[in-house]
Amino acid sequence: MSKIEINSKLPNLPTTIFTIMSQLAIQHRAINLGQGFPDFSMDSVLHDLVEKAIKDGHNQYAHTFGFQGLREVLAHKISNLYGSNIDSETEITITPGGTYAISNALTSVLREGDEVIYFEPCFDSYVPNIKVMGAKPVAIPLNFPDYSIPWEKVKEAVNTKTRMIMINSPNNPTGTLLGLADFEELKSITRGTQIIILSDEVYEHIIFDGEKHHSILAHPELFERSFVAFSLGKVFHCTGWKIGYSVAPSYLTKEFRNHHQFNVFSVNTPMQVAMAEYLLNPQSFLQLPSLFQAKRDFFAKEMEGCILKPLPSKGSYFQCFTFPESLGTNSRKVALDLVERVGVVLIPVSAFYQDETDNRVLRICIAKKEETLKEAGRRLSVLI
Ligand code: PMP
Q: Are 362 and 331 in contact (CB under 8 A)?
């Protein structure tokens, strides 16, 4: 049978770097510090709560906006952490993960010809999801090596077609945080415009050195025009559960839910019921900064004599390391080489730029067991 012709909506998409590196990891039995998933167990309390929810019969479709008990706990948490008054009825929607919270927000508001400003390097789901809507991704490279936002360039890029600005803090892959000065810039750029903001805050609780997560939720002027994406899978180290949520003012949430009800209708019920109970204890999230900081610091110690040198990481699952020219000048090739030479999988940060901008930086996932980090550090330290 001859094939039906498809006018692909995402033509020429390369295989993602994660697929390539994960395959190599298996082939070479390498330590995988590439993809951002923990290799340690989640809290058994949460595990038990899911079992209980299943046994208690929470096994049918949840409400399309999400289990009301979970939305209420989240509204309460947001109020305590950021002082903002979020309506659980009209402003929070439970989603199958943060990726979906982002893509469904883009689907809800973007139209053909719209421009979306985003910053590179960035999480790799952004660009395809902008393109599939017929919108134009407008990349602004972050300053190197501190990965701060060049606000002057943002001002130059804004025009009447700009429909959205996407931000991400704590940042994947750079591990940097946005501060109050960034939010002031964003206010002055968006004031009086039709620009919507998408704030990706999936690493909200993974933050180091006593730093504070500045959520867009704490800035009413910005929140009025924002979708905010969160991931419970990321923060509670159960990425495979694919559970997160979107927070947005009611007029944006209404659009979001119009699409959501026909895209997935609802998110798995027992996990939502369990999360609602788990989050009643604030320690569930307040303990996370010290847990992850200990991992970052442990790995930094293991890497002390290594020729890969750390760039500061203030949050997220990640820390970036620069490498000297003696290893090579093409980060992708160096990362492939390292799998064969020392059996460790790292991700070239050049893969997070559309034009593969190469500053000789590799991203390392520090959300791993100490024994994994120790062995990876030992293997990487032989490099000269
Ligand atoms: N945003 C960023 C910046 C991420 O790193 C990730 C996960 N890698 C997500 C969103 C998606 O989160 P989830 O796994 O809940 O879909």
A: yes
